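Q: Here's a chain of 428 amino acids. Please give me its 3D structure as tokens.
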Amino acid sequence: MFAGKGKQLTLFLGETDQYHRKALYTAIVEMLRREGCGGATVIRGVAGFGASSVIHTAAILRMSMDLPMMITVVDRPERIDRVIAPLREMAPNALIIVQEVEVVQSGAPLKEGLPDVKVSEVMRREVATVRPDRPITDVIDLLLDKDFTAVPVTDAQDKVVGMISDSDLLTRGGMSVTLSLKRATDPAFVRELHESLEDPKRKVSEVMTRDVVTISPDAILGRAAKLMVEKHLKRLPVVDKDGKLLGILGRLDVLNTIAAVHLPEWNSQPPAVGQQVTVSDVMTREVPTVHESASVEEIFELLVSSAHKRVIVVDHERRVVGIIADSDLISRVSRESWGGVIEFLRARIPIARISGEARRHLQKLRANSVKDLMTRNVITVQGTMPVASALALSAEKRVKRLPVVDDQGRLLGIVGRTEMMRALLARV
């Protein structure tokens, strides 16, 4: 956890309040867990009254009354700030207060940041699914509206019979471009994706992956995390003994749990040799970089050759000043140039070999500078940071890959979640 300045969030609501046919306090606790909060306490009152001025008590003869409930959370300020908006949407009639607090002690972090909890305590119970007889266009529409790129395929008895992902749609479904470049708010993008399919009427059963890796709800989280790393998976369907879907465990759910129990304060002094694996032990030193004065053509060529799908922008002293991912090109270029960028990223070939029309669209981007395309305020880590802490930061900031810098901010390498999880799990 952490010590130092924090925030305490308190909600006052009623015992019978509902959210999507579920007890509101239960739905809120589940949301707080998904968002990586370190803990939440629900207290059931014995008496109280609210805006209605009706007094509620736990007297024997009035057990059916709507008793007051209080939910308390203490966490880092940025994490509390992040959950305010969803809480206001879930509980529009609740009293919500936030106070600044000083955390003196929050308990010892668990071994290597992997808590000894069951999958059922971390998994998401509300799961988007698709039936095997549905057209693949249904899957595209579903994924464009979500923040994930794969869904379980279930039969009429809710048993898992397959998994269909972005990569399945690309390799077997004939989709033209990865959904990681999606623009769900652009109707033209959705229409072009549908029209680009070789056969939009193909069924999910023809494209899905049938050999599905699943996990039991009683499995320990560390086992699930190792399975994800070994099988190169980002999501695991959680099933009962009969194969019926109970929930889904995503890599971000695992990382949020790590972040909740292991985001310790650390200083720039390297840990003792052999004590912890650090970022410098697992980072990749070969990083595609450009100077902030580089041309757009240089950026495009580097993105084609980069396995990281991003380019780091540095100044004359190699300090990190920005980052450009392939998704940045889609979100920051004009609609007129968008088709050319899509074709370029799909083909993954040098600009000189792109077709004439698409190449003309790309050439119009020459007026753009690196500063127009890059993301500023880059989240970086130092090479001396423990891997567990860097993973926690990755979850906290929702960043998949982190540039690694020295104490002067100069670029040393780049590190991704997969490498860090593999290193962390190798020690448990």
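Q: Can you summarize the key feature?
A: Residues 123 and 249 are 5 Å apart (CA to CA).
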